[in-house]
Structure formats: structure tokens, C-alpha cells
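dude i think i finally got it to work??
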Amino acid sequence: MKLTEALWMTVASMVIGMLLSCFSLVKAPWNALLSLVAVLIVLFYFRKNERLGLRIGFVISSVLYYILFIFVLSAYLYVRGLV
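look at this
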């Protein structure tokens, strides 16, 4: 794996994790817009990187970033008294 591939995977999976965590916290119609942007980013990433290992790493790191960001955003909303 090259450095640029690793950086693209990290940045794209961070963005997808953030979009998915925001998707689960906001109301319609914003969640539809967030999911559409996430799908477009995933399609762009999968077209750019055709190696199976990069795709598996992308999905696993996206799920891990989703869990991390949902925890951080939920804690932030709880502290602010918005939940």
C-alpha cells in the first residue's frame, strides 16, 4: 500500500464515518442529503481503488470511525443538554 492510498483511505473513511454519524442524529430531509453524499463518496472511492484489500480496509475503518464519531457527538449533545 502506498502512502497516498493510505491517506485517501483514511480521509475518505473519516468523512464517511462523520456523515453516517450525522445521518443517525439529524432529522429528515437532512439525513437523505447526508446519505446521498456518503454514497457518492463511496462510489468515487471504489472506482478509484479496485484492490480488494483497500476496499475491505475502507469499510472496516469507516465503521470504526462511525462508532468513534457517534460516541463523540452523542457525548457533546448530552453535555450541551440537547438530548
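The chain has three helices and no strands.
im so relieved honestly
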